[in-house]
Amino acid sequence: MDRLDEINAFIAVADARSFTHAARRLEVSSAQVSKLVARLENRLGARLLNRTTRDVSLTDIGRAYLDRARQVLEDFATLESSVSEQSGPRGLLRLSAPVSFGAAELVPALLEFAAAYPDISLDVTSTDRMVNLVEEGFDVAVRIGLLSDSSLVARKLAAVRMVTCAAPDYLARTGSPTTIGDLTAHEAVIDTNLADPTLWRFGVEGAPADVRVRGRLRFSGAPACVAAAVAGFGVTRVPAFAAAEALRAGRIKALLCDFEPEQIHVHAVYPHARHLAPKVRAFVDFLARRYAGEPEWHQGWS
Asked: Any idea what the CATH number is for the domain that residue 273 is in?
């Protein structure tokens, strides 16, 4: 088992390019990781990593060894999983999820999952930061929108409409926009989590169309934007799951529905592995079943 610990430490450092980040992922000290890698190099009689004060990189021998080392660990994981699968998924599942989606939609699903799989423990981090799953030791992440990391496996869970909306009393004062160009005359409540917060993208006759908006209220999250819109401070544009409850209650009204852009999607993403851990497979399959069909956040208001 000591040799497997050495190999695991080496892979973690190679992936993270840092002994500190590898130690965080493995939940041990940096000194312990350094000791394991040094012991592996001494036993092999070869230097696997180049170390500087700012960076860690693979030597040519280390790069060749890394591929075989991954296979060894995957084979070992396959062996253990073949036994654990007989008694069902179990163990600790570390999950990263966006703050707004977690608060609005994911928490009820997580509680259902926890009830259905009592042998799986959940450690959930709610953050809008794009975490590095491998470096930070997450098993799976829920992400919304475009996926940029091609090194991860992605499973589409659900579609999400981007909804432009405002309170009836605000619209009574200002009038309702009928074209996207009308938004330039309105006060916008801006979600700074968007890549370009003041550039709102729509679709006009099947083609993308952008409009630059302005507003004095900015929030780093859709729930606060919805609350401001309900209070009559202006027009906001948020994912449907964040606005659905207020839309159904009539506290805000959907606008410019004929100009909505293409829907974005919710994905479950996880690192490539030749043998997927039963706990990860169980979780991703559960979410896929939970969100199958037309999402509930699109129903009851449009």
From this structure: 3.40.190.10
Q: Which pLDDT tens digit goes with each residue over 92-151?
A: 999 999 988 887 789 999 999 999 999 999 999 998 888 888 778 889 999 988 777 667
Q: Which helix (H) or strand (E) holds 121?
A: strand 120-126
Q: Which residues have C-beta within 8 Å of that of residue 139, sequence separation ≥ 6?
A: 93, 94, 95, 133, 270, 277, 279, 280, 283
Q: Residue 227, exposed/middle/buried by CB under 10 A (0-12, 13-18, 19+)?
A: middle
Pairing of strands 140-144, 152-160: unpaired
What's the Rg (C-alpha) of the chain?
24
Whether 155 and 268 map to the same domain: the answer is yes
227 and 80, same structural domain? Answer: no
Count the domains in the chain. 3
Looking only at the bridges linking them, the beta strands covering 264-271 and 152-160 are antiparallel
Question: Distances in Å between the alpha carbon of 243 and those of 224, 232, 302?
Answer: 10, 14, 12
